[in-house]
Amino acid sequence: MANDQDLANDPRHPTTDRDLLARSGLGEEDVPVLIAALLRGSKRVERVALSGGAVWIKRYGTERASRWMVLQRMLANLIRAPFLRPSPILADEGMAGREIRRLAQFSSHDVPTARVIYSSGAAVVFSDAGDTVDRQLHHVLNNDPVAHDDMLVHCAAELGRLHAKGLCHGRPYPRDMFLKDGRIGFMDFEEEPDRVMPLEVAQARDIWLLFLQVATRAKLGGETHDRAYKAWAEVAPPAAVAELRKLTGFLGGFLSAARLIGRVHMGSDLRRFIVATSYLKHVS
Predict the structure, then answer these.
(1) What segment(s) does the record annotate as region Disordered (predicted)?
(2) Of 11, 107, 162, 208, which residue is the least packed, with the fewest Cβ within 10 Å?
């Protein structure tokens, strides 16, 4: 994390509290609190309470790329499966810059996002977007299965609309979505799959990743699976639908082995893979 001297030498860092006040829209009493949190904090994601509400600081570089990402890229190229390629690995400030750039891209397409309040080096301060969809799902999990599954269908529909706008998310999990004025908003834009694969492939991967959640979380089972897929497919680009067919056709070749392994130990990740891939392979 940068120290006081680093921040003073950073042209994006305000030289006075008044500069930060003008750029961020914060109250005067909030500026020293935020600066102190930026300088002293070390958590990857940190919530900071201010006078007008909470903000979130996200720091990049606290987690390093694993060797698996390198192996994943090699495997994807070897077996010619572009949807397996990980997003490019960037330096800390590059990761922060990517998230800011992609957030602006989504916002320019009228997609609800959190607001960037301030950035400096490898740290970005975001406005609070409220409860995630994941948290809202947990609120109704046991007492309203219809509302629970309606939310999953809503996520699929909004992902389809996102794809129709020529965008992809890269990790469209409910924990990276929020609800604003009845619309699904998106956050956490660290992935950029369309840099390493065609856009339609990235979009097909998006819906497969979402279905890893939908397939096993749906309280009403196949009825919700059908509604969620239809909600996505009705608005998604035809090219993405076609790529999903290829993706699940490829992954379907591993289902027999996955089921065999599952007889010995059926972990949650394996179960999600089997249920989601089997369903999408059949329906697409």
Answers:
(1) 1-22
(2) 11
